[in-house]
Amino acid sequence: MIHKRFWGKDMSEALRAVRISLGADALIAETKNLDRDLGGGVEISTLVEGEIRDEADRDEVVSRAQPQVHPMDELREELALMKSMLGWLAPGLGRQNKVIKSLVNHGVTPENISKLLHALENAPGNNEQERWQQAIARQFPPPGDIRKSGERLALIGPSGVGKTSTLIKLTLFESRRREGSVGWVSMDEQRINSAGTLMTYAGILGVRFERAGNRSELKIALERLSDCGLVLVDTPGTNPRDNDSIKQLAKSLHGLGALRCALVLSAVTNGADLLDWVNSYRTIGLHSLLFTKLDECRYLGPIFNTALNAAVPLSYITFGQSPTEDLAVAKPEVFASLVLSGGGCDD
Ligand SMILES: Nc1nc2c(ncn2[C@@H]2O[C@H](COP(=O)(O)OP(=O)(O)OP(=O)(O)O)[C@@H](O)[C@H]2O)c(=O)[nH]1
Ligand SMILES: [Mg+2]
């Protein structure tokens, strides 16, 4: 390794000289502000692999005469410089820190990254990976999956997010974990096909089936299914921005004993809408959040941020169209490993 020095009239110019000569991965050993009687400006010492052949190998002075640069190239160059400077000022935030890079790539907000860095300080673990895993997992509330007995759960949410498919997946998943019969109530009466399809599935799976168009019919349906260990209620899709339809749904579900609500949201939704929608449905009383379509989405930042900021337990995630395989309990560790793995966006 040899030391090679670069000068510029200021830090940007000196760093630009380093980048042009050695590339973005140059190892910066030291920077100095030079006294005026030494010519002023900034000197950067770098470490370079190789041997000294002549003095030109050792020192490089930036030419003050800059060629004409296109504004976009200048902007790109400025960004690259800022990146180099950040890497130098805070080596932990540089490219070497794969975890932060992965979180940034996924779209986790700076506020949440900062929360995680804070949690990392006290996180247990035998290595960096385990400590990150713990720091992330600890940010989530315990999973709000279905109770072992007597659960009555309504799946609510915007249209097309996967409420009905998830109800079928949940039944198959939970049937493996519990004894006793399962009942379904379809409130999706406006669309005959939807309730009809569900009734067909109920026949195939041996699930008790009821329909309900309003609150009093739902009350009766729940009473009829009172001997079922698990009852799932399918609701029609609502527009999260339409307060009236949300109020209507709240009226239908309110005050029905043990009935709880899971808000179903598609992972393929931008973060701002996700948080907005959680707040719209909050008036109904949310027991948990359930994210669907993880298989369709590459960037998990939006659901990660929502899960962290909404302060509502997560219950399940779905990640495909197979009713038998594509659902899992949303354990905090699962989220941690999904964002730590880079989610395929490391490149
Ligand atoms: N790729 C993928 N598709 C899914 C997933 N979950 C549901 N879908 C698909 O999403 C589409 C809509 O699913 P539904 O279950 O009908 O959605 P919904 O919320 O009941 O719709 P509405 O009743 O119209 O509000 C269907 O084509 C499902 O197969 C998932 O996890 N991954
Ligand atoms: Mg449906």
Characterization of the model:
The chain is an alpha/beta fold and 347 residues long. It folds into two domains: 2-92, no CATH class; 151-330, 3-Layer(aba) Sandwich (Rossmann fold), CATH 3.40.50. The chain is 41% helix and 19% strand. It has helices spanning 11-22, 55-58, 71-89, 98-106, 110-121, 128-137, 163-175, 192-205, 215-224, 243-253, 271-281, 301-310, 332-340; strands at residues 2-8, 27-33, 42-48, 59-61, 151-156, 182-186, 208-211, 230-234, 259-266, 288-292, 314-318, 327-329. The chain has an eight-stranded mixed β-sheet with strand order 7-6-8-5-9-10-11-12, with helices on both faces. It has a four-stranded mixed β-sheet with strand order 2-3-1-4. Strand 9 (259-266), helix 11 and strand 10 form a beta-alpha-beta unit. Helix 11 (271-281) runs parallel beside helix 12 (301-310). The longest helix has 19 residues, at 71-89. The protein is elongated and about 90 Å long. It starts with a strand and ends in a 7-residue tail after the last helix. The relative contact order is 0.13. Residues 62-67 have low confidence and may be disordered. Bound molecules: guanosine-5'-triphosphate and magnesium ion (MG). Magnesium ion (MG) binds next to helix 7.
Write a concise keyword list for the protein shown above:
binds guanosine-5'-triphosphate; 347 residues; alpha/beta; 12 strands; single chain; Rossmann fold; 2 domains; binds magnesium ion; four-stranded mixed β-sheet
Give the ligands present: guanosine-5'-triphosphate, magnesium ion
Global morphology: elongated
Summarize the main sheet. 8 strands, mixed
In the sheet with the most strands, the strands line up as: 7-6-8-5-9-10-11-12
Approximately how much helix is present in the residues? 40-55%
Q: How many β-strand runs?
A: 12
Question: Into how many domains do the coordinates divide?
Answer: 2
The low-pLDDT segments are: 62-67
Structural class: alpha/beta
From the alpha-carbon coordinates, what is the Rg to the nearest angstrom? 29 Å
**Pattern of helices and strands:** EHEEHEHHHHEHEHEHEHEHEHEEH
Instruction: Give the class-level CATH name of the largest domain.
Output: Alpha Beta
Q: State the separation between the terminal residues, measured CA to CA.
A: 30 Å
CATH overall fold name of the largest domain? Rossmann fold
Percentage of β-strand residues = 15-25%
